[in-house]
Amino acid sequence: MMDKIIDCHMHFSAKGIFDKTAENIGLKCTLEEVKHQFEQNNIVLGIGMGVDKCEDNIYNNPQIIYHGEERFPSFLVQCLGINALAINRENLKDTLECFKAKLEENTTVGLKIYTGYQPYLATDRKYRYFYKLAQKYDVPVVFHMGDTANSMGKLKYSHPLILDEVAVDFPKVKFVIAHCGTPWIADAVEVVAKNKNVYMDLSGLMEGNFKAKKQIKEFKPYLDVFRTWFNYLHDYQKLMYGSDWPLVDMKEYIKVIQSIIPKKAYDDVFYYNALKVFDRLPEYLKKQEKNL
User: How does pLDDT run across 182-218, given as a tens digit for each residue?
Assistant: First the structure.
């Protein structure tokens, strides 16, 4: 078992789809369950991707719902989701002010953009305002890239090659390609290899309730693709572990990811790389340890 893990891409909400998703792996999407799963797998922190409509936010920009908790759970932080569909010329200024206020909080460690689910390219003018915010507050921007979870998504918006243009235009901002851009793994790896400010998370490569040993054997051709292109990249400090929980069982998914990266890179991929990309995490974890 790994000594310490940061899950840099997960979801937490009892609203929307994730309660049903958790049922698919025989669990419930509750704070108690998340905490239990973390303790069982030595996960010290999870970065939740904002997907819910925050009820006190009139601009409908998604954030994690606290489940009635008065304060943010100490074992979770969040990337604020950007709902480009809700942003227009009239509310843009107020929306940005809302994001600035949330970015002042130490539990906000990044921004999340849902390319593919929303019909805007990563180069769209709406997003450029948020890249400037990310630069100002020194937080990374995570993109959903690759296949979408439903047929309503439009794939031309979620191809990872478009991030090359964004990375060049905003060299001081760190960008993360979620899900390795699957199935466009080669394109995603090339964008990461070319641009020093682009990284990749390993979330969502599989889903469902499975046993790792059987999954690794049955999906060997698929997993070999990742092994090949990670070898081409030859820089395991550009990769970060993420689960996309509750899409998968944490214990079994960790084993799958361990099978596609060399053992010598485990500590970086599962823990240290996240500390470098999400600059607020080291200080957050220090405060967390003091409060234990």
Answer: 999 999 999 999 999 999 999 999 999 999 999 999 9
Q: Which two tokens stand for residue 5?
A: 């893990």
- CB count, 10 Å around CB of 194? 11
Contact predicate 110/63, CB 8 Å: no
pTM for this predicted structure = 0.92
Name beta bridge partners: 177: 143, 200
- Terminal CA-CA length for the chain: 22
Structure confidence at residue 52 (pLDDT): 44
Whole-number Å distance between alpha carbons of 96 and 93: 5
Residue keyed to tokens 């607020």: 280
CATH (residue range 5-290): 3.20.20.140
Contacts of 209 (CB under 8 A, 6+ apart): 24, 25, 26, 249
Residue 6 vs residues 10, 42, 45, 225, 279: alpha-carbon distances, Å: 10, 9, 5, 24, 13
Cα dihedral across residues 239, 240, 246, 252: positive or negative: positive
H or E element, residue 153: none
1 C-beta neighbours (distance < 10 Å), count: 8
Q: Where are the domains of the chain?
A: 5-290
Handedness of CA 241, 244, 245, 247 (dihedral sign): negative
- What pLDDT sits at residue 11? 86
For residue 85, pLDDT over 90 is answered with no
